Every structure is written in structure tokens, then in C-alpha cells.
UniProtKB/TrEMBL annotation:
Name the record gives this protein: LysR family transcriptional regulator
HTH lysR-type domain residues: 3-60
Pfam families cross-referenced by the UniProt entry: HTH_1 (PF00126), LysR_substrate (PF03466)
Matching SUPFAM superfamilies: Periplasmic binding protein-like II, Winged helix' DNA-binding domain
Superkingdom of origin organism: Bacteria
Amino acid sequence: MNITLRQLRAFIAVARTGSFTLAAESLFITQSALSGLIKELEGSLGLRLVDRSTRRIQLSDTGREVYPLVEKILNDLDNVLDEVANLKALKKGTVRVAAPQLMACTLLPEVIAAYSAEHPDVRIRLVDCAVESVVSRVFSGEVDFGVGPERDPNSDIDATTLFELPFMAVFPPGHALAAQDSVRWTDLEAWPLIALQGQFTERLSVDLHTAMREKSLDPNTTVAFMSTALSMVSAGLGITVCIPYAASLVRLYGLEMRPLVDPVVTRRFYTFTRNGRSLTPASQSFRDFLFRYIGEHEGYAR
């Protein structure tokens, strides 16, 4: 069978109006075109759907049985098209994004709030997780895309640079380092260093050793979360290093930051997407907004 939507809509229009003239007007086609569509539909089905006489037009017994089925098909299709239009127009939709715990409690809530002000009907689901699991959540399809620091290359994952920021020294107010506009890495040796566990410290140690052959990172204490490190610094147990996007959390703990120099070591952050998997309109819109937000705020080098 070669049945078209135009034929089905013509049949529904005739059934609702009981008139070829009115049905043709409602579809903005000629009466002869409408009659042709009904004949084509009947020919494809091999059934008479409309009984015609000189006085009136009415559905045949078969037509009356078919009518509610065709009406449901068209209603369901119209609902699908409306749903697609809403998704495309960002009148609804859900975005799932994974990010490390520190970024999820500092930068991203600010971005989500700004985006939601423009697109209040789009729901953003933020998945805060360990840095090491951001890419795996993208790969598994649990999230639409992820945001985080550079990871080892993966042929299944596309990584696009979002920003690049230098490391900062973090210490309590009144600390000796507060008198300096910038802090050398060698200056940190005078105080206990609290660092993050895992690849954060491992990659930083490699970068420092590359830039300063005799220097590597030697923390006194390692912790799983930056919030723990900041709390320990606030208690006077040492100093730490972080990326400046965490400034709001640093201020929340009443601490101060200074840029680390000699050498300046930076860390790149990326958005991660699955190769071969397109983003939904809402997800693409939020990802584009994230890049614009970063570009419009000072301190984020691309």
C-alpha cells in the first residue's frame, strides 16, 4: 500500500464536515483534488470509505470503522510534531551534564542559573562526580556531555577546549604569602601543602618536573575533595593550590588566592562528547551557552 498523509487528512476532513466543498476549503485545496485523494485512498485500501449520492455524502460502514483509527494516527503524529517543535524551540527538554565535584559546586551552578533565566522550560540535570568518571559517564550515555580537565586521549570521545587557567596558591588571610602579588612554586616549600589525590596532583607534579627538573610536587597531605583541602587551610593546617574558577568557594571559606609563577602552570578544561552521537537541541543549546558564558567572563583563556 502507498498511503499518504494527504490522503488520510482528506478522509478525516470529509468525515468531519460531511461535505467535499467544506472539506476542500479546510485543507486549502480544490474539490477535484480532494475527490482524487479520497479515490486514491480507497484504491490503496481496496475498500469504499465514502458513500456518494447526489443529495449527500456519508461514510460507509467501513469508513465509520476506519475513521477513529485514522483520527488517532493523525492525532498521535501531530503530537509528535508538536513535541519535536517544542524541543527545537527549547520550550522543553532535559540536559544531562557531568562535571567534577569542584566545578559542579562553583562554575556550573552560575552557568545553569544564567541559562535557565533565558530558557526556563529546559531542565538541567547536573551529575557531580569524581574527575576520573566524567568521560566514562559520557561514553556510557548516562549524560549528554561532560566538562572537566584534560584526560588521556580516547578515540570514542571528542574533547573540545573550553578554557585554560593557571594554578593559584590558597592560604588564610594574614598569611605571609598575602603580602606578595604572586607566589613562586618554591615559596610553597615553607608550609605544609594539602593537595588533591589522583590525577590532579600526578599531572601537576609531571608539569612542574618538566619545567623545573629539580622540582616536583611533594604534598604533606592528600585529600579527595577540594572542600576538604580548603577547610583544612581555613583551620590553619597548611596551604593548597587550585584553579581560579573555584574562587567563589575559596571566598566562602574566607581564604585568599595568589597566582603561582616561576613557572606559570596551566590546566586546560574541555567539554567531552561521544563521537558519532548528536546532541539534542537542548543539550546543544546549553553547551553553546557554556562556551559563550566563558567567553564573556574575564579570566578564562581559550
